[in-house]
Inverse folding.
């Protein structure tokens, strides 16, 4: 079983915090690689300032260069809108991989708003990356109230492939404060510089939809 991390997001655009968090998770969890699931659209976010999928995927590929990180738009290919459905299909499609879901503490704070969030936790282990300013809300969240009984020690993080979900590990890492919101404010037309000509998904090997 190939230990593989999954980091979902809009990547609108991808930035260095995505990369730093992924490289940290690879080391802390003993992963072979991390897949960046470039979402067709986030149900919890508006689409008014969402760049085209091809541009967001291209920015993710550029940010992931020379690293064991594989950006993919496979959710568009699978036709899934919710993470729970994506995970269900990925587990079936890639039986020789063992997946762990990676998310920031800001997502844990609102995890109970995700479709079938308990189903997500029951399907794969979850690694939560500390993010300055969000840890308090994450620990006090409704989802954490249920997940707390399944927390595993960070010192044993590399043993996650032996854990039976639900299983949650809190990883203490303080990334830089880069954000996609800040990058969009600085350069609203960032996506115009990313060409989608002949762009193929590195996971599915198919042209982007």
């Amino acid at each position: 079983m190939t230990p593989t991390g999954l980091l979902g997001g809009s990547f609108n655009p991808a930035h260095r915090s995505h990369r730093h968090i992924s490289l940290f998770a690879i080391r802390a969890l003993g992963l072979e690689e991390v897949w960046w699931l470039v979402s067709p659209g986030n149900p919890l976010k508006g689409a008014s300032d969402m760049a085209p999928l091809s541009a967001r995927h291209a920015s993710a590929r550029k940010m992931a260069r020379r690293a064991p990180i594989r950006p993919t738009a496979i959710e568009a290919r699978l036709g899934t809108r919710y993470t729970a459905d994506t995970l269900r299909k990925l587990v079936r499609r890639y039986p020789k991989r063992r997946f762990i879901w990676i998310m920031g503490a800001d997502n844990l704070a609102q995890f109970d708003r995700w479709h079938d969030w308990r189903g997500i936790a029951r399907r794969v282990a979850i690694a939560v990356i500390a993010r300055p300013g969000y840890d308090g809300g994450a620990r006090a969240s409704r989802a954490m109230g249920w997940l707390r009984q399944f927390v595993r020690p960070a010192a044993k993080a590399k043993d996650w492939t032996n854990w039976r979900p639900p299983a949650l590990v809190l990883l203490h890492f303080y990334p830089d404060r880069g954000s996609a919101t800040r990058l969009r404010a600085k350069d609203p037309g960032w996506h115009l510089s990313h060409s989608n000509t002949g762009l193929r998904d590195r996971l599915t090997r198919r042209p982007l939809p």
About this structure: The longest helix spans residues 16-29.
